[in-house]
């Protein structure tokens, strides 16, 4: 059982570790990873304002990141799936700028950043991977700002669903049928829309034959039409590269 929890045998390794790491290098990384007991819905990995200690890799389940604005409202800025890293934005100020709450039963690996820094000096490919992940996060943030600034409700929701589809595909899961662990209210907060608008848009997509919704289960029926709405091209759909998140 213990071996199943090691980096070498983790099915998510290609998503978070650089290609070509030797067994000895992977064991060094494995030695600094803290594997927490499963978190449950509503639990927090960390909260806004907490001192930065390390980054987290989701290994199962899903979480949301959010901050509380000056009016005391929750503003969601991202959803994370297995294989995705959280906490990179805290490297600069050494304080977590957002809270991360669990949406469903979730497991995560915690990597102390001070130890990770020391290890990157020994393993150049690990340092390169960290830079790539930081670059990807900046790119995703810019893309999301562009979507929220100029896109309609239909375009925003289509882009969101395509992002999830692409990310599930990169994990060798179904790109066409998946579970939405987040509520309509949480989706609305993330997309900058009213929850009623999100519900109406889901209903409109169903009427147009673009998807089917059964509670939290979504089945994409016409992914090309959704791609047209979301401004994504067929080659991007096949790339497995997420639009955001």
Automatic annotation (TrEMBL):
InterPro entries: cNMP-bd_dom (IPR000595), cNMP-bd_dom_sf (IPR018490), Env_Response_Regulators (IPR050397), HTH_CRP (IPR012318), RmlC-like_jellyroll (IPR014710), Tscrpt_reg_HTH_Crp-type_CS (IPR018335), WH-like_DNA-bd_sf (IPR036388), WH_DNA-bd_sf (IPR036390). Transmembrane segments: none annotated. Signal peptide: none annotated. Pfam families: cNMP_binding, HTH_Crp_2. The keyword DNA-binding applies. Residues 151-224 form the HTH crp-type domain. Keywords: DNA-binding, Transcription, Transcription regulation. Residues 39-91 form the Cyclic nucleotide-binding domain. SUPFAM superfamilies: cAMP-binding domain-like, Winged helix' DNA-binding domain. One of its GO terms (molecular function) is DNA-binding transcription factor activity. One of its GO terms (cellular component) is cytosol. PANTHER family: CRP FAMILY TRANSCRIPTIONAL REGULATORY PROTEIN (PTHR24567), FUMARATE AND NITRATE REDUCTION REGULATORY PROTEIN (PTHR24567:SF75). This is Transcriptional regulator FNR. It comes from Solemya elarraichensis gill symbiont.
């Amino acid at each position: 059982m213990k071996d199943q929890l090691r980096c070498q045998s983790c099915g998510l390794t290609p998503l978070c570790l650089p290609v070509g790491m030797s067994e000895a290098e992977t064991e060094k990384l494995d030695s600094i990873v803290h594997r927490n007991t499963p978190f449950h819905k509503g639990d927090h990995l960390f909260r806004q304002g907490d001192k930065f200690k390390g980054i987290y890799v989701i290994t199962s389940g899903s979480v949301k990141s959010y901050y509380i604005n000056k009016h005391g409202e929750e503003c969601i800025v991202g959803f994370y799936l297995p294989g995705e890293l959280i906490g990179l934005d805290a490297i600069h100020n050494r304080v977590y700028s957002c809270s991360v709450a669990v949406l469903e039963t979730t497991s995560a690996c915690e990597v102390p950043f001070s130890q990770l820094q020391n290890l990157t000096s020994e393993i150049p490919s690990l340092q390169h991977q960290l830079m790539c992940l930081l670059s990807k996060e900046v790119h995703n943030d810019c893309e999301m700002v562009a979507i929220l600034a100029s896109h309609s409700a239909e375009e925003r929701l289509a882009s969101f669903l395509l992002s999830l589809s692409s990310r599930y595909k990169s994990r060798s899961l179904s790109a066409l049928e998946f579970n939405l662990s987040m509520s309509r209210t949480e989706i609305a907060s993330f997309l900058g829309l009213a929850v009623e608008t999100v519900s109406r848009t889901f209903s409109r997509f169903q009427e147009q034959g673009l998807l089917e919704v059964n509670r939290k289960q979504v089945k994409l029926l016409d992914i090309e039409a959704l791609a047209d709405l979301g401004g994504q091209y067929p080659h991007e759909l096949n790339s497995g590269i997420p639009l955001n998140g």
